[in-house]
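During the reporting period the student researcher (J.K.) took over the structure-prediction task from the postdoctoral fellow and processed the backlog of single-chain submissions. One of the processed entries is reproduced below for the supervisory committee.
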Amino acid sequence: MVVYYVEADVEKVGSVLAVLTQQKKPPTVQSFLKEHRPLIRKILKHGFGYERIAEVFQGAGISVKAIAIADVCMPKKKGAKQSGPEKGTKPASYPALQQVLTGEQVSMLSQALEALSQTKNGLTYQEVIECHLATIEAALGNGWSAQDIIDKFAEGGLKLQCKESTFLQGIKQAKRKRKKVPEPQGEKQEAISQTSVSTQTSMDAGGWNRLSVPDRAQRTAIEKEFNT
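J.K. obtained the following C-alpha cells:
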C-alpha cells in the first residue's frame, strides 16, 4: 500500500528541516569527552585523576562520575578482553553521559579543561631528579651511592617510588636532556656584542681606522669611474 502525503505538509516539514542546516546538534557529555580525549589524557599525564575532571564537570552544572569519564577516555588495548559483565549481557551504562550540553556549558568546560592542562599536580620522579641534578652529581662525586641519596630524599619527606637502578637511569636521562638545552638567545647575543666591542677596541688601540661602507650613490660613482 502506497501512502501519499499532503503537499502542504511536505512543504511545512521542509521548513522545519531547514533549521537543522543552520545549527549543529548539541553535544552530549559522551561526545564532548570523546572530542576532548587528547586534552584529558594530557591532564592525566600532569598528575590529575578522573575525579578532578569530574569536578570540572560539576562546576559547569553537570553531574557525572569519574568512573563514567574513565570508561570513555581510558585507552582500550587492542585484542584485550573487556572485563565486567558476563557474555551476553550489556556493559554497565551511565545515563549521565547522555546529558545534552548547552553552548554555555561547552564553553565553560573547554576553558576549564584547557586551563587545567596548563598546570601540573606535582612532579614526576624524573622531574625531581632534573630539579636537583647538580646536587645529586656533587653527592655522587663525594662517594655517596644512589641508594644513599634516595634515602636522603625520604628523610626530607619525599619518598621516590623507584629502584636504585631506575634512579641512576634517571640521572643519565637528565644529563642527556641538559646537554640538549640550547644557550639562551639573549646571552648568546650579549656574548657576540661583547666580542664585537672587544675587537673594535683592539683595532682602535692598534691605530686601525675602520672604513665606512659606501652607499648606493657612492658605489654607482665608483663603477662609472672604472668603466670610463
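The committee noted the following: Residues 24-76+95-120 form one domain.
J.K. will present the remaining backlog at the next meeting.
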